[in-house]
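To illustrate the input format used throughout this study, we show a single complete record. The first block contains the structure-token representation of the backbone; no residue identities are included at this stage. The design step must infer an amino acid for every position from geometry alone.
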């Protein structure tokens, strides 16, 4: 299986979920509920500093099982917000990640507007952006490589309509170039972030050096996010020095015996590195 096959499989699974959801609730009805729902909190970033998007992830194909719903997930989500996370990313993909929309709803309730929850999934349809807003999310992740440009633009337009920030996820230079074009076109109407995922889509292993190698390709006009494989303070310091302003951290926090302490240490390392780099 190649990386595109993996994404195609996830897109097909996502499309089946959308089809089933539309049978339960037409898109017009869902949109009315989304527009009537409480406005989500805005993503607030440290000026000139470094931020972490902390992730709630029960399982991943690369790491296996990380948590179960029998654990006190509410406490974990609360700790993320209390110890400096700028947002909480929530996996909602059910087949490979054991996620659910209910997890997103749970996170939004626990966060109580302190910081936004972000839907992380293999999104392919604007319907899913509306689902995220109804569940209480303030943002969503969109994988640039998964979709043709018109489909990506449809997701961005729906997110702007519903006031959700979007993290555009790139894997290589071509993805970054497309992301930069979308930022230039849509960044004035909504809050966009551009991230680099350093995980290989075939082996699911982290590719050493990818984050640093691609950092110079990222436009300076958009907050830059380092994704995957960041587990230590030294790794955070390295990507912060390379120019990233945020890191999306999931596995390390989910595995940590004391996630609050680790989050505090990661933030301190990133902010010190950014200060040292004259950011």
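Output of the design step:
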């Amino acid at each position: 299986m190649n990386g595109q096959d993996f994404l195609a499989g996830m897109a097909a699974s996502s499309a089946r979920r959308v089809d089933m959801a539309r049978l339960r609730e037409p898109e017009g009805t869902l949109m009315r509920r989304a527009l009537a729902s409480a406005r989500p909190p805005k993503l607030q970033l440290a000026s000139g500093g470094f931020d972490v998007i902390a992730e709630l992830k029960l399982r991943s194909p690369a790491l296996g099982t990380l948590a179960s719903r029998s654990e006190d997930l509410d406490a974990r989500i609360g700790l993320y917000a209390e110890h400096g996370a700028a947002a909480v990313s929530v996996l909602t993909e059910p087949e490979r990640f054991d996620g659910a929309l209910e997890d997103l709803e749970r996170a939004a309730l626990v966060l109580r507007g302190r910081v936004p929850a972000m839907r992380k999934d293999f999104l392919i349809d604007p319907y899913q952006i509306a689902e995220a807003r109804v569940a209480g999310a303030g943002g969503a992740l969109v994988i640039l490589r998964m979709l043709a440009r018109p489909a990506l633009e449809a997701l961005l337009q729906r997110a702007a309509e519903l006031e959700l920030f979007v993290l555009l996820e790139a894997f290589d230079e071509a993805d970054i170039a497309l992301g930069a074009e979308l930022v230039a076109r849509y960044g004035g109407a909504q809050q966009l972030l551009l991230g680099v995922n350093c995980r290989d889509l075939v082996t699911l292993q982290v590719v050493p050096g990818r984050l640093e190698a691609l950092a110079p390709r990222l436009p300076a006009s958009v907050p830059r996010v380092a994704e995957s494989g960041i587990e230590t303070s030294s790794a955070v310091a390295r990507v912060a020095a390379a120019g990233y302003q945020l890191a999306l951290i999931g596995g390390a926090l989910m595995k940590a015996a004391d996630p609050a302490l680790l989050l505090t240490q990661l933030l301190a390392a990133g902010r010190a590195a950014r200060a040292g780099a004259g950011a």
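Structural context for interpreting the output: The chain has a mean pLDDT of 94. Residues 37 and 134 are 6 Å apart (CA to CA).
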